[in-house]
Amino acid sequence: MSFSTLCHERFSARKYIDKKVEEEKIVAILEAGRVAPTAKNNQPQRIYLLKSEEALQKIREITPCTFGAPMVLLVCADESRAWTSPFGENYNSAEMDATISCTHMMLQAKDLGLDSCWVLFFDKNKVRQAFALPEEIKPVCLLDIGYTENCAPSPSHANRKPIDQLVTVL
């Protein structure tokens, strides 16, 4: 599958079948996140693979948005490892680096025949407590991953703004 096709065909899956993701696919997905670019190559992304019944139950108690996925990636950022802007903007790259890593894993999953859903609808403090995250580790997003059948994109999925509304040529 070409990269363009991959980008156009992926969508947020909201119904998974009861089928475990093969270990070699999990390894490939995590590897895609590991090699994602980060500011100054500081690699502040921290990924928690939730696949045990106990871990999945914990996350399901925090958010309804796991949709029966057999695995969920809790994508976090170690703010102590992130690049910090020297321009007085009070900004570091932790969250952006983590989301770049998540995008790589999402696209790798699709390339391997899996679907996913990027989730922000969760209480970060509850996640921090449930999984005993260290203080410097910031929960950023969840990525549900699994197999689907008869699952289609939401009706608004194809509604995309024209390129001229998104890009300004200078």
Automatic annotation (TrEMBL):
Gene Ontology MF, one: oxidoreductase activity
Gene3D superfamilies referenced in this protein's UniProt entry, alphabetically: NADH Oxidase
Top-level taxon of the source organism: Bacteria
Cofactor: FMN
Classification via CDD domains: nitroreductase (cd20609)
The entry's keywords: Flavoprotein, FMN, Oxidoreductase
UniProt key word Cell membrane: no
Stretches assigned to the Nitroreductase domain: 9-62, 66-147
Pfam families: Nitroreductase
InterPro entries reported in the protein's UniProt record: Nitroreductase, Nitroreductase-like
Family recorded in the similarity comment: Belongs to the nitroreductase family.
PANTHER family: NAD(P)H NITROREDUCTASE YDGI-RELATED, NITROREDUCTASE
Name of the protein in question: Nitroreductase family protein
